[in-house]
Design a protein that fits this description.
248 residues; alpha+beta; Cytidine Deaminase, domain 2; 2 domains; five-stranded mixed beta sheet; four-stranded mixed beta sheet; 8 helices; globular; binds tetrahydrodeoxyuridine
Length: 248
């Protein structure tokens, strides 16, 4: 994999400006991150955020951030460097093999699968683990919630699963249903921000919510967010290589 290819996985229908980076962990694994925009612009996931959280949600420690260029795109680079203690290098020709995060599960998803995944949650602030499994064409992409010192920069399990899948190159036709559990809560349900992000990527899929070893609810993504934010004015700006649920 190289930056030229990785950049094409970016989801940038609103800016048309693909962005990608890679985090190398202390144990030598590579975690790609691409920019994933949202029609509600502040819900955009930055490439560094995507890569760092993919790494730490895998129980790994970031060591080096590899950027294709020195462009400062307002991504709080020094915050990420200081908080996670990595150094940054620039190498446009960098090549790497991304860590394969796909989980193979035979048979139906069970609560146990999600409970096991919860052990990876990075939850210094909340002690409230959440796990999500996103179906892809060859298995499931896992996500857990990951928090950092800045509460507002953390990501929910659902968005980590989605950003990992997109950063791994799974397009809309290769992503499917999502399975979610939050064992510490008396009820599980994706937050509003996750719903808006899900609407953009897995709108036609089903969301399965698990609690106490049973599936509580299976609901269509669209039904989770009636009257969701949308605007033809914004979606008209779609870039040519971008796949948006709103640009069909
Ligand atoms: N959280 C999720 O992972 N998914 C949701 O849908 C709701 C909230 C996480 C975020 C944070 O790490 C913790 O739960 C408490 O808000």
């Amino acid at each position: 994999m190289n930056f030229k290819k990785l950049s094409t996985f970016s989801y940038v229908p609103y800016s048309g400006k693909p962005q990608a980076c890679v985090i190398q962990s202390v144990s030598g694994h590579f975690y790609p991150g691409v920019r994933i925009e949202n029609i509600s612009y502040p819900l955009t996931i930055g490439r560094i955020q995507a890569a760092v959280f993919s790494c730490i949600a895998d129980g790994e420690k970031p060591e080096t951030l590899i950027l294709p260029d020195e462009a400062d795109t307002g991504e709080l680079l020094s915050y990420w460097e200081t908080t996670f203690g990595f150094t940054t290098i620039t190498d446009a020709d960098f090549t790497f093999s991304p860590k394969n995060l796909v989980v193979k599960i035979s048979g139906n998803i069970r609560y146990d699968h999600l409970l096991e995944l919860c052990k990876k949650a990075v939850i210094p602030n909340s002690s409230f683990p959440v796990a999500a499994l996103l179906q892809v064409n060859d298995g499931f992409i896992p996500g857990v919630n990951a928090e950092t010192t800045g509460w507002e920069l953390g990501l929910c399990a659902e968005r980590i699963a989605l950003s990992r899948a997109i950063s791994a190159g799974y397009g809309p036709s290769e992503t499917g249903n999502m399975y979610i559990a939050a064992p510490m809560g008396d009820y599980v349900s994706p937050c509003g921000a996750c719903r808006q992000v899900m609407m953009e990527h897995i709108q036609s899929q089903r969301i399965h919510l698990y609690q106490n070893h049973t599936e509580l609810l299976s609901v269509g993504c669209t039904d989770l967010l009636p009257y969701h934010f949308s605007s033809d004015e914004l979606s008209k700006k779609s870039g040519k290589n971008q796949q948006s649920a709103f640009s069909e």
